[in-house]
Write a structure and sequence with these properties.
The protein has nine helices and ten strands. The protein is of the alpha/beta class. Strands 2, 3, 4, 5, 6, 7, 8 and 9 form an eight-stranded parallel sheet that branches. The longest helix is centred in the first third of the chain and has 20 residues. About 5% of the residues have low confidence.
Length: 241
């Protein structure tokens, strides 16, 4: 009887475990939609330029903002929301969550959410994309969806805009979540994060050019929507930590 019960409950337990320890990296759908996401902002120079490019191509995006930067540039936070984009939580000062305590993680979430209020959604992207099972569970139990990505631009160290554009055009699929940066918060020198072996490209001009060229080449074949909109088009694919 015990083993029969375990056998029946196992699929349910697997789903619960995946939901609590997994990160959403894409959406399973056949609809021609995808999401552009931007980390580490807002930036007073580059974020408005990103918004202008997105507006030209009728694209909506999700901006995962660092609370410390959002406090310094509240007018940009407001503009991002006003232009129809979604704002998510990217921690207070970009410390990697596995590197800090549970108390510190809660404070990072709280302070960032306060900084992006009243425009912030309950979406979270871990700094450097780093999370462990415990920190992931803590975040999800506080009502957040943890968002990763399926297509990495590598724009924080790639100096060639054509390489970024070509990678996007060749690899984008319905349901893709694309990682970009409208700012490099720590300028490639993490205080509490993984050691960086590549030199960071602080100037976001390469990223801006690649974004513009990518949207031009896609030519409306993919509609770019916010993460909440993307999730309405299919089932989220979670990758377990």
């Amino acid at each position: 009887m015990f083993y029969q019960t375990v056998k029946i409950l196992k699929p349910l337990l697997n789903v619960v475990t995946r939901n609590l320890t997994g990160v959403i990296t894409r959406v399973i759908t056949n609809d021609p939609v995808a999401s552009l996401t931007f980390d580490d902002g807002p930036d007073p120079i580059y974020t408005p330029k990103v918004i202008d490019i997105l507006g030209k191509y009728d694209a909506r995006a999700t901006f995962f903002m660092v609370g410390e930067a959002a406090c310094k540039h509240p007018y940009i936070v407001e503009r991002v929301a006003r232009d129809g984009h979604i704002i998510g939580n990217h921690s207070w000062n970009h410390f990697a969550f596995p590197y800090i305590s549970s108390v510190e993680r809660r404070e990072q979430l709280r302070k960032c959410q306060q900084a992006i209020s009243p425009y912030g959604s309950l979406l979270f992207r871990p700094p450097y994309g780093l999370n462990n099972k415990m920190s992931n569970i803590e975040i999800i139990l506080r009502g957040y969806k943890v968002i990763g990505w399926s297509l990495d631009s590598q724009d924080w160290y790639e100096p060639n805009s054509e390489s970024i554009t070509d990678k996007f055009v060749k690899n984008i699929k319905p349901g893709s979540i694309i990682l970009l940066h409208d700012r490099l918060f720590d300028e490639g020198k993490p205080v509490k994060g993984p050691k960086q072996i590549q030199d960071a490209v602080i100037d976001r001009g390469v990223m801006l050019f690649a974004l513009r060229e990518f949207l031009e080449r896609i030519n409306g074949n993919i509609q770019f929507v916010t993460i909440p909109e993307l999730l309405k088009h299919g089932r989220p694919h979670r990758e377990t930590l």
